[in-house]
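Appendix C reproduces, verbatim, an entry submitted by the partner laboratory led by Prof. M.T., so that reviewers can inspect both the input and the predicted structure.
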Amino acid sequence: MSEFPMSADPHVHVARSPWWFKLLGRMLEPWVRIKRDPAEPAALLNSGAAVCYAIERDGTSDALILERACREAGLPSPMQLLDLPGRRRRSVFSLSRRHGWLFGRTDARGPREPIGQLIRAIEDDPSRDIQVVPVSIYVGRAPNRESGWFSVLFAENWLVVGRFRRMLALLLNGRDTVVHFSAPVSLRNVLEESRGLTPERLTRKIARVLRTHFRRIRAAVIGPDLSHRRTVVDAVLNTEPVRDAIAATASKENITLAKAQRRARDFALEISADYSHPVVRSTSFLLSNFWNKLYDGIAMHHFDKARAAAPGHEVVYVPCHRSHTDYLLLSYQLHHSGVVPPHIAAGVNLNLPVVGPILRRGGAFFLRRSFKGNALYSVVFNEYLAQLVDRGVPLEYFIEGGRSRTGRLLAPRAGMLAMTLRAFLRAPRRPVMFQPVYIGYEKLMEGKSYIGELSGKPKEKESLLGLLRGLKVLRQRYGHVTLNFGEPILLTPMLDAAAPNWRETTADPDVKPEWMSSVVDDLAERIQVNINRAADVNPINLLALALLATPKHAMAENDLLAQLELSKALFQELPYSDRVTITPMNPQGIIAYGEQMGWIRRVRHPLGDVLVTDGEQAVLLSYFRNNVLHLNAAAAWVAACFLNNRRMSRSSVLRLGRIIYPFIQGELFLPWDEEGFAAQVQDTIEFFVRRGILEASAEGRVLERGPGQDDGAYQLRVIARSMLQAFERYYIAIAALVKNGPHTMSSGELETACTLTAQRLSLLNELSAPEFFDKALFRGFIQKLREAKVVWTDPAGKLDFSDALEDMVRDARVILAREVRHSILKITPGGENDRDFDARPPVDPDDGSAAESLHDRHVANERERHEKHP
């Protein structure tokens, strides 16, 4: 028995509920199932004071639900009578009161009378205290797919509903009723803290605090009240920057102020979401069936950590972008888990007939791909985003700018991050938390279109007809999907580190602090790194890593089993981060699953079965290899050092690794600095030594692999080839530049030459990775060369380079076979400046002092260049 059913307060009288109240309670009981939050609310109460409950809305049904919840939790009944000045009243009151039996009107002044009576009771008796317990009641917050379509229409929302609608909600959704008990408020303490206020002002203050509390709880449970789109649009148009931009547009284009205002309003309406709770719940209901037809399961990992970190923050979800289903999956899973779905930044190309309005009511707001040349649109969009941040609306956007066609994370486009940062700096009331999310698939609906685009076909423009044609993909199954929540990134500590006086930054949107660009770039890099640190290794990833590393994409079953076991052991014994998840399937189960999904097929043979992935499937499979390529980077580097060398010093592996690391890091968003990567390489070497794949001699200074036919050598080759095409791409770029000579090619010309060379090499060698000739990857590598001061642009816009670049070409002999290097040099377009790159000896693989650091080379070359051209 609880200690609360009989109150110790002599002013509290236990009274029987009216007979009609009991009768209604019994009639309602079969239709209502209550979930208490917290499960044991009695722990919140102070046993020495009387209890009075405050509920948000007046209604017999809420009183019945509250009475039952209190009874089941062993709390004092809300039907107890309190002795108050001039009368006795029940131990419950509501913030709003409805007059009339059936079609009554709501009176928001309802709580002033009972609150005033409670305050007067405490003033009359200094020894008395009353604790007010706010209780929020939600009927049908998140109906599940078994509850029926009609139930969704009567789920909880921000609208004040009548008695008939509430009765329907109870009948349809009563089994999903949540009763949230908040910590009690001692009126005695409030009275002592507000001695200077009159009773009337104190009453209004308590009522206002309670309303704010209930709004905050409701926003946390069902989302912010943004149902009035017009209100948000008007707030945007009334801001000073928008008014100034309207005036500037009218003056510049010589149009009337009214016409400029209409244009600004049109922009705001084009951009803004029209969030609708019924639509969100209806869409959730539809998606639950959709996902069941499409996927075999959706898993979330580390979500509890994300939910625990979120309270009190403006949360910005920043997932990787691999499919059109990304935002639907994330919003659905958040809603299903009891978290408010975010407002999502979507490209205006998705604002299609029928589809656009649904997305808009689901929280999507639309932006154009470029704001260039349209100052008014830019200001309106910035102010709309600032309104969302100021109102505490959770956001979601993809900083890659578009869907990845290769399976890798794309270089971030930091426009939305910069706008979010500006919005926060203007009103830093609520700290901002960026929540990276890794989304992993086992099969993509867009896979074939991605291959076509990478092969040179133009991207199809989104249209309603194209969407209808795409419905045929629903006939297939797409395996499992995983959402992994990465380590969150808090904005305030980053600002404190970059600019300790950032709080003094002006709110003028036209003023850009000097440190802002570096903070935005650093933030974008951290987000991508943390997404990769939350990767999920599924069975298809592991099969892709193994099979695509063989010339014909085929492996004997025993070899494939051994390779899968090695890869799993590598990821488990040398964890990339504590948020990476790995499939629990054993190697036999992984192969069987790959066959079931249609990714691989078995060729029967008397000497042992062979597993193979065919032409187009191999190309599609490269996408899933690239999802987890970063996890394999250190191991691939160590293995690559032994492709053409049976014996090599440990120090050479480490020093050459330091040279290549900045380029791998830039491409794969790796988390380590140069020394951290060296430590990871050391750990990987020790792993290979423990497994007998490498042997260490000379007190560990020299490493050696077995002969070419050895199982360990074969496994090293498979691991190395996962990254070999990246090293070949680097060689194509530097070879093209050196072959053509300094001051002959611009960055754009070099990108084109590299892309054409890679395409031709791919045709000649039947490479199954379309990202091998992805222009963006060449662009990123050239940019890294610029940052390392190995390459720079001369006054004529052509590229010049230091001697370190030629050294890098020669060092490639350690990794790339002679025939590969000669093929690349033969295909690469060049002028009369051809050079014999093999004339100078490469790094001696057995010499411990073989490779000087790239940094030292750059310093020496920079010094020489400045001496020649002061």
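The chain has a mean pLDDT of 83. Additional entries are available on request from the coordinating office.
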